[in-house]
Amino acid sequence: MGTCSHILTGFSLAVQYRRKLRRILDETPVITCILTLDPEALKSSGITALALDYDGVLAHHGAPAPLPEAIEWMKRCETVFDGNRIFILSNKPTEGRRQWFANHLPAIRFISGVRKKPYPDGIKKTGELAGVPLSQILMIDDRLLTGCLAALAAGARPCYIRQPYISFKQCPLAELFFMLLRRIERWFVKVITIV
After folding, report:
1. Do the beta carbons of residue 87 and residue 53 sit within 8 Å?
2. Residue 94 forms beta bridges with which residues?
3. Residue 32: which of 62, 68, 61, 56 has the closest Cα?
4. Closest CA to 109 of 100, 118, 117
5. By the 8 A CB rule, do 120 and 154 touch?
6. By Cβ atoms counted within 10 A, which residue in 72, 95, 152, 179 is the most buried?
7. What is the pLDDT of residues 134-182, one digit of tens each?
8. Half-sphere exposure of residue 61: CA atoms within 13 angstroms, side-chain side
9. pLDDT, tens digit, 9 for 90 and up, residues 98-119
10. What whole-number distance in Å separates Cα of residue 67 and Cα of residue 56?
11. CA 149, CA 188: separation in Å to the nearest integer?
């Protein structure tokens, strides 16, 4: 029942926020990845805290540690936002990943004990822990119907990553599955905004 309820909630929220999702889809450049996001520019736009998805945003699916360029980008973000206002909000928060952050970027914390995205619980908890209004949180995710939708439902700002990190060499089946899922999401958002 949990998975079925999760999927139904996702579809219900998608219909509710369909126009905003379509705007995100239409206005996000195809080349967008985290490296195109300048931390200083984000802060000057009113962002005071970051919620980061892991798979696709910081590394390819299943990777135990972020990619070197993602690590450097997060270090830049720490100098701008303070590490205590940067969070990992992943539907797959493995213990190995938690341990990697504890050893290398200890100020960045994982959000846990909440329902998975697209429920807005994780973003609300981010706001509580960071001590900032939800409207000042940027949720960075490579999925429209999980992280971006959770951000909209919480009243936070979504950032859609259209060029996620992938590795067919490391995880070919998972990458093919998520590539297909992203395409289906984009198609679904287009269809529901026509109706």
Report:
1. no
2. none
3. 56
4. 100
5. yes
6. 152
7. 999 999 999 999 999 999 999 999 999 999 999 999 889 999 999 999 9
8. 16
9. 999 999 999 999 999 999 999 9
10. 10
11. 13
